[in-house]
Amino acid sequence: MPANASTRSNVCQGEAFLGELALGGTRVGTGINTQSILPKKTIAGIAQETAWSFASDNHFEAQGAIDACLETSGALKTVAVSLIKIANDIRWLGSGPRCGLGELRLPRPAGFLHHAGQS
Fold this sequence. Notes:
0% strand
């Protein structure tokens, strides 16, 4: 992964934060007038079907905030910017002997087809 260790840990933490489900057991998610076991059973069923870890520690907080989504989005954008920089560096280094640095020499892939008129 091109990002540094702190970015990597931020992306990994996003998985835990995004696992907070806002399930209260009713259509609006408050859990009023429902059995308290219903959200836990539902989350366990979802976790079993998807093989992901989910929790519902505070479903009111999960309903009212999108902090986990924003934090994970920021971490993924940081990784994307790192990948773009690497791609631009490779493009610049291999851009040719006349118009760029031409420092990067990559072997032609096997089965590479030539366009008509090119040698």
